[in-house]
Design goal:
By secondary structure, the chain is of the alpha/beta class. 29% of the residues lie in helices and 23% in strands. It has helices spanning 27-40, 55-64, 73-76, 81-89, 116-123, 139-150, 167-178, 210-227, 230-237, 250-255, 317-325, 359-364, 366-377, 387-392, 488-499; strands at 15-19, 45-50, 69-71, 94-98, 127-132, 156-164, 184-189, 198-199, 202-203, 276-277, 280-281, 303-307, 329-333, 345-350, 382-385, 395-396, 399-400, 408-424, 436-448, 457-459, 465-467, 469-471, 474-477, 480-481. The strands form five sheets. The protein has a seven-stranded parallel beta sheet with strand order 3-2-4-1-5-6-7, sandwiched between helices. Keywords: ATP-binding, Cobalamin biosynthesis, Glutamine amidotransferase, Ligase, Magnesium, Nucleotide-binding.
């Protein structure tokens, strides 16, 4: 078992960042496999993912038995990376952080912001570079040397060579890397890849392929256990620096007084430039009274129905934690299977996922569609992101949906992808007009019209536009947001549940 000093405060929990020169190098296989291999030895592993991705954390959760958590410096700000990491790593022996894209790739046009390198520095964590060696020999040394020297503040402590063809190939690669001084901590042979099916938005989520996903994670764990120096990786993890400050806590986050909202900028003029500080502009939480850090659980606490299951598997764990800290009872329901909302539902949250894949099944569940439509008509709060937006539309690919919004949704060949700086255009159950939030879009669908009479957000990039719908208690948008960046969103939503 791995132990670190002051694990209770999570200041010195051993940790590694698994990175790569580029996407497709094998980060997910190595990171998930390492989590599984260490867990199989009885080690309590804390799983993390750099960036906004929802799918990889599902595989991490299977490998470790713990909730997979995201570390996104664009969505949440650099100042929350260490506290959110510490929150997830409570009680663990070691943490494994899977990077995003290439090591130094981050938010477009924002320098290192939201890159794996930035998060590694903020966590004071050593980096293990996973290199696809299938088409190179001695040149691997130049590649590794470049990544080691590009930013001296990023400590590349080891290399794992992936897709190595033979014993001779391994010898050539190892000899070349001796000159770099970077140790080889693993060699994975070129073999049939672990079966991890993909489709239009990446890997198929764990929730849709439970048995196959378990088998895939086991296979990744076996690969890493056989080909990697687990003791060497653990020793490197133990060299991580101490972290200052306390772990993030949902209740404590709620009592922080948010700044007042800015005036609504979308009244025929361009939105104002966001305030700039270290790491770029920061989101602003909605206004409203603070609540106790540890709310008293009592009969009558509002029930918030949170969509889950195969069609709606995208959510950040901190969202439910914040709703709970704000006094709600969060109950999950599955729109594919459940015909009723949880008893006593006072509000509904429908996150991301793949409703387009399950459109016929969702449409066939007419009873639940009517229940959700009724909740929305009553004025109760309903928050929907991306997949949730599609579900609330009148139809999706010609099949009836909830009909809460007078809009039609359909699949598209075009991928919409990227971070967004957004400003709330309309007062809603989530935010006051003028509230700034950061989010991301990731979909291959189109909603027509793209915005209602009272839009949800105004964004500048990739073009200046308004999008989404605010109607009564409904807030529906393509924008995925991370509520840890603005805890007042949860407080405002729960207060509306109490009063609606």
């Amino acid at each position: 078992m791995v132990t670190g000093a002051a694990v209770g405060s999570v200041r010195s929990v051993p940790r590694l960042v698994i990175a790569a020169p580029a996407s497709g190098s094998g980060k997910t296989t190595v990171a998930t496999g390492l989590m599984a291999a260490l867990s199989a030895r009885g080690t309590a592993v804390s799983p993390h993912k750099v960036g906004p991705d929802y799918i990889d954390p599902g595989y991490h959760a299977l490998a470790t038995g713990r909730v997979g958590r995201n570390l996104d410096a664009y969505l949440c700000g650099a100042e929350l990376m260490a506290p959110l990491f510490a929150h997830g790593a409570r009680g663990c022996d070691i943490a494994v952080v899977e990077g995003v894209m290439g090591l130094f790739d981050g938010a477009s046009g924002e320098g290192e912001l939201a890159s794996t390198a930035q998060v590694a520095k903020l966590l004071r964590a050593p980096v293990v570079l996973v290199v696809d060696a299938s088409a190179q020999a001695r040149s691997v040394a130049a590649l590794v040397h470049g990544f080691v020297s590009f930013d001296p503040e990023v400590r590349v402590g080891g290399v794992i060579l992936n897709k190595v063809a033979s014993d001779r190939h391994e010898v050539v690669l190892r000899e070349a890397l001796e000159a770099t001084g970077v140790p080889v901590l693993g060699v994975l042979r070129r073999a049939a890849p672990v079966e991890t099916p993909s489709r239009h938005l990446g890997l198929v989520p764990v929730a849709e392929r439970a048995a196959a996903a378990v088998a895939a994670v086991e296979a990744m764990g076996a690969q890493v256990a056989q080909g990697c120096d687990l003791e060497g990786l653990v020793a490197l993890a133990c060299s991580a620096g101490s972290l200052a400050g306390a772990a993030w806590d949902a209740g404590e986050a709620l009592v922080s007084s948010p700044p007042p909202p800015l005036p609504s900028p979308f009244s025929g003029v361009a939105p104002p430039e966001p305030p700039v500080g270290p790491g770029g502009p920061r989101p602003q939480a909605p206004d409203g009274p603070a609540v106790a850090a540890t709310p008293v659980k009592r009969a009558g606490s509002p029930v918030v129905a949170l969509a889950g299951g195969a069609a709606f598997s995208f959510s950040y764990a901190e969202q439910a934690e914040l709703l709970t800290a704000a006094g709600a009872e969060v109950v999950t329901f599955d729109p594919l299977r459940d015909e009723e909302l949880p008893e006593g539902t006072s509000g509904v949250v429908i996150g991301g996922g793949f409703p387009e894949v399950y459109a016929s099944e969702l449409s066939a569940n007419e009873a639940l569609r009517k229940r959700i439509s009724g909740v929305a008509a009553s004025g109760a709060p309903v928050a929907a992101e991306c997949a949730g937006l599609l579900y609330l539309c009148r139809e999706l690919d010609g099949m009836p949906m909830c009909g809460v919004l007078d809009a039609s949704a359909r699949m598209s060949e075009r991928l919409t992808l990227g971070y967004r700086d957004a400003v709330a255009v309309s007062d809603s159950v989530l935010s006051a007009s003028g509230t700034r939030m950061r989010g991301h879009e990731f979909h291959r669908t189109v909603v027509e019209p793209g915005a209602g009479a009272s839009p949800a957000w105004g964004v500048r990039v990739p073009e200046r536009r308004v999008e989404g719908f605010v109607e009564g208690g409904v807030h529906a948008s393509y924008l995925h947001t991370h509520w840890a960046s603005a805890p007042g969103v949860a407080r405002r939503f729960v207060e509306r549940c109490r009063t609606s």
